[in-house]
């Protein structure tokens, strides 16, 4: 489908499904086991109704989109989550993602398992190589390899390390396994908070745990001195029936709302519309990540990624206006009815 015919983020999935070969598309699309978490990530947003306020001055809504993430300036409160194997969608791999992020002035977090080498991705940075990237890592080597990895990441110029903590075991991914494109490390990694502290001493960059799924772990992370936490169930690709980040954000809001003031909170999973972003922000989330929509958009390279950015910005601003929000950074939980429609 021609790029100009796409009008919303789900259109990129439709286009990718027709364009990519089945095994590559399946790798992106797949969720764990019965894919309950995959579906719940998408559907959870519709269980909570907006509470639009009317006759309010919303004329400055667009100007309130830009925000900071760990002190760095971006044009919007959303970012590209780390996803492996960008090469499945485009021979240029992650280059479309890094360039599209630069053109849209949003944050991109390259995956350790990118198709392109880290140095190529960082060499493609825009803004006179000043474009801010946070580098995602898995720890699959010993301490010496990890020390070397951290040195490489610092030398490349990343501004933070995103440490994925939701995957001590493989994701059970039946769909992908049928095409032999599943995850297959089969080694349980013994990552603990003690090790987190050791890792923190090995780098000057902040290490942000990605995959926090309970208020207890959010609290523990704050106690361990993190600068930010990243709520995620890996796009429903790891533990099936794990909660969506909206449910985790709500748990934190209900039981320990101070956490949103103590550290920056990032969240991803199932975000496809402007209103999804607003619901997460309303609880105190600082920035919202999207994985698959940008991976699918990358079939069009940087142009597609930039278009996805523009679509989401447009939707956030419009939805905020219709919601009666004067300043996106000041949206609060009173704009959503947190009694779930289905009583879940
Ligand atoms: C991922 N995700 C992921 N996460 C991570 O920390 N490291 C990684 O290498 C990958 N790889 C990966 C590949 C693909 C194809 C997908 C779809 C996802 C998870 C990703 O960062 C993010 O949490 C989810 O994609 C968010 O859900 P949505 O936006 O895809 O619904």
Automatic annotation (TrEMBL):
Gene3D superfamilies, alphabetized: Aldolase class I
Q: A single GO molecular function, which one?
A: FMN binding
Annotated FMN hydroxy acid dehydrogenase domain ranges read 1-341
A Pfam family = FMN_dh
Q: Which residues bind FMN?
A: 82-84, 111, 136, 164, 210, 232, 268-272, 291-292
Please give the cofactor(s) recorded in the UniProt entry for this protein. FMN
Q: Where does glyoxylate bind?
A: 27, 138, 173, 234, 237
Catalytic residues at 234 (proton acceptor)
Keywords of this entry: Flavoprotein, FMN, Oxidoreductase, Signal
InterPro entries for the chain: Aldolase_TIM, Alpha-hydoxy_acid_DH_FMN, FMN-dep_DH, FMN_HAD, FMN_hydac_DH_AS
Q: What is the similarity comment for this entry?
A: Belongs to the FMN-dependent alpha-hydroxy acid dehydrogenase family.
- Tell me what this protein is called: FMN hydroxy acid dehydrogenase domain-containing protein
Q: Which organism is this protein's natural source? A: Clohesyomyces aquaticus
